[in-house]
Inverse folding.
């Protein structure tokens, strides 16, 4: 469910017409709905309400805007971060350190130091080398790092290969058969307190079965660790639940279906007592809380097809180019009828294409369109290819709107370069 609806022939973000935002700040621009973000945070937490004190840590990578993080923090969410930059954003947004988890396969020493200094809840460790380095960094600074071992449960998440993370051949996590030895090692190292285990098997999942299989393996691992006399008090179940991008496809499992599965599976764990569960949803919270608002620059009749050229491009929203995935595209003021169009951006690459031979309402030069479900992995993956300034972001809350990131100016973009004086 989202708050982007046609009212009186025109699409609104909550109570603000998208055309008014385009007038005020120009295009392309990301527009987020505060109401949708809040609703998703509540629905997900509600779906987990049968669990004892679950921690829902929003995956900051999905949408790291500080205003968005602040809003989600106010809803009680924590943050799952994968870099010092993301951690600083979460802290700047007022998310308490004891709700922040640091994941990622290549944390540097300075990042570890920063995490310890900030006093975050937990670091999810992904390799032997990282564990030893973290111990050294913690011991040096006289601090203790609470860690979970991220394991690779070797299950096929049945999603796109590029966003699948839980198979043996993926770079993520520690092989399950090495987890016990490494956990014991962690428990013996200075500066380390081993508190739990973690897994994240992939993103945009439409099937609960692989998640269930992974969670069962985690439960068995917890029992083995405890049987070996080790302490386990937290299990991080990751993120990954899919969202509907294509309205023509059957919907993904609901948060309630997911919550019921988690409850059922974890209740069956051999040794469940005293375990706090943690979750890292990203897309589910932010995905359909945002659209990329863009204007048609021109309509071009090619030899083989009609091209609608937008002022947004692959540098602003790279998902269709990178993964070949579907984003719904809607006219802000839809006209009657339907035509076939290929929707592209102005960047000099054939792959700069948002939709190929898409059936949609007729579009003309100057029309506004909304690329839907762009609130997660949208603005955050934007770049400046073709020297196009970084895209801006607007947050709408009821009838209020605010620029939460101005579009970069060309002056700012050019000012990043330095020309050595010997040229
Ligand atoms: N936790 C960890 C350790 C992760 O690696 C990820 C996503 C998440 C949580 C959040 O997953 P979510 O709930 O959003 O599915 N750029 C890609 C998605 C990459 C996801 C990477 N990791 C896309 O646009 O589809």
């Amino acid at each position: 469910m989202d708050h982007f609806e046609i009212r009186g022939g025109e699409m609104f973000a909550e109570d603000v017409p998208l055309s008014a935002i385009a007038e005020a700040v120009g295009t392309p621009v990301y527009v987020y709905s505060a109401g949708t973000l809040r609703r998703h945070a509540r629905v997900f937490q509600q779906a987990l309400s049968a669990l004892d004190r679950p921690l829902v840590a929003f995956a900051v990578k999905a949408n790291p805007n500080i205003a968005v993080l602040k809003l989600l923090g106010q809803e009680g969410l924590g943050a799952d971060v994968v870099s010092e930059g993301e951690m600083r954003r979460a802290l700047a947004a007022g998310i308490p350190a004891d709700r922040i988890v640091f994941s990622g396969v290549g944390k540097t020493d300075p990042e570890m130091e920063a995490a310890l200094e900030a006093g975050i809840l937990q670091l999810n460790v992904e390799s032997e080398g990282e564990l030893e380095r973290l111990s050294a960094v913690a011991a040096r600074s006289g601090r203790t790092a609470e860690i979970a071992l991220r394991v690779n449960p070797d299950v096929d998440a049945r999603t796109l290969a590029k966003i699948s993370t839980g198979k043996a051949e993926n770079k993520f996590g520690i092989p399950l058969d090495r987890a016990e030895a490494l956990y014991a090692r962690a428990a013996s190292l200075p500066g380390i307190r081993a508190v739990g285990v973690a897994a994240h098997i992939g993103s945009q999942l439409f099937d609960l079965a692989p998640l269930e299989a992974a969670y069962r393996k985690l439960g068995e691992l917890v029992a083995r660790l405890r049987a070996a006399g080790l302490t386990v008090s937290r299990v991080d179940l990751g993120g990954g639940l899919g969202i509907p991008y294509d309205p023509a496809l059957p919907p993904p499992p609901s948060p309630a279906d997911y919550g019921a599965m988690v409850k059922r599976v974890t209740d069956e764990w051999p040794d469940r007592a005293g375990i706090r569960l943690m979750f890292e949803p990203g897309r589910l919270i932010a995905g359909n809380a945002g659209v990329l608002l863009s204007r048609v620059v021109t309509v071009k009749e090619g030899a083989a097809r009609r091209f609608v050229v937008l002022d947004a491009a692959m540098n602003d929203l790279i998902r269709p180019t990178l993964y070949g995935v579907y984003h719904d595209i809607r006219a802000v003021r839809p006209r009657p009828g339907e035509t076939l169009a290929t929707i592209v951006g102005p960047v000099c690459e054939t792959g700069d294409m948002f939709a190929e031979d898409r059936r949609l309402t007729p579009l003309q030069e100057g029309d506004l369109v909304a690329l839907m479900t762009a609130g997660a992995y949208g603005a955050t993956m934007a770049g400046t290819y073709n020297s196009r300034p970084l895209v801006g972001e607007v947050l709408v809350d009821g009838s209020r709107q605010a620029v939460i990131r101005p579009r970069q100016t060309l002056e700012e973009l050019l000012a990043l370069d330095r020309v050595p004086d010997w040229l």
